[in-house]
Amino acid sequence: MTIHIAQSGDAALKPCTHDYQVNCGNCRLNSICLPLALESDDIQQLDDIIQRSKPLQKSQHLYREGDDFQSVFAVRSGTLKAYKTTDDGREQVTGFYFPGEILGMDGISNNSHASSAKALETAAICEIPFTSLEKLSALMPNLQRHFFQLMSREITEDQQLITLLSKNSADERVAALMLSISGRNARRKLSATQFRLPMSRVDIGNYLGLTVETVSRVFSRMQKMDILQVDNKEIKILDADGLRAMANLSG
Q: Which pLDDT belongs to residue 6?
């Protein structure tokens, strides 16, 4: 993953740029990406294997289901969604990926991607060839450990989604997603209470197993309860404790 160091002061609040000349040493996400806990010389070795191309445009694919697995990818700016195609040709959204997060690990087991990944908006991506990452990880225990932690997080989040879809009400599902986005923003030193949703209501419903109408009704209910302020895709969390309670989470 190419994650970058958050700068102090105003720089921490600036959105990621799409500058594909950036490197791991100066990327503001590196405190949450693979360079975490690496020495400067090690970061340089990691940076040497990373490939950066021009940004993906909205709706452009990073990879498609069934493509040969060759690399994992770190999101530097923008947001992507992962989805699988059902037997009857429908799209099933399986995840959203924000800056500082890694995707593509679904291809490791069978050497082919189990899902597709598409940009929801203009997105800058760092590509990390997996064979090179394997070699580096063998030489850098900290890098290997952090990559395993990332894989573990991915598995945990998959399990949480399965639990979410099998047991929770519509209110709980939407509230849990808002809390997830809030927490991911906080990791990137961005506002945990005010953010723009990069995905559509259709994608939210698809991901959570709800109709678009149900998603809209839940948002309306949250507004009436003064838990959220919703203006199209702009979200402001007014009552974090109320949101946690709605998500059926403690603390």
A: 30
CATH number for the region 164-246 comes to: 1.10.10.10
Write down the pLDDT at residue 88.
Answer: 92
Taking 70 as the threshold, does the pLDDT of residue 250 lie above it? no
- CA dist 185 and 62 (Å) reads 23
Q: Where in the chain is the domain with CATH 2.60.120.10?
A: 9-144
3-class DSSP state of 58: coil
> Which residue spans of the chain are classified as CATH 1.10.10.10?
164-246
Pairs from 110-115 (Cβ < 8 Å, separation ≥ 24): 110/69, 111/68, 111/69, 112/66, 112/67, 112/68, 112/69, 113/63, 113/64, 113/65, 113/66, 113/67, 113/68, 113/69, 114/65, 114/84, 115/65, 115/82, 115/83, 115/84
CA atoms within 13 A on the CB side of 155: 6
pLDDT digits (tens, 9 = 90+) for 184-238: 899 888 999 999 999 999 999 999 999 999 999 999 999 999 999 999 999 999 9
Give pTM, 2 decimals: 0.83
The answer regarding whether domain 9-144 maps to CATH 2.60.120.10 reads: yes
Predicted confidence band of residue 2 (pLDDT cuts 50, 70, 90): very low
CA distance 241 to 36: 31
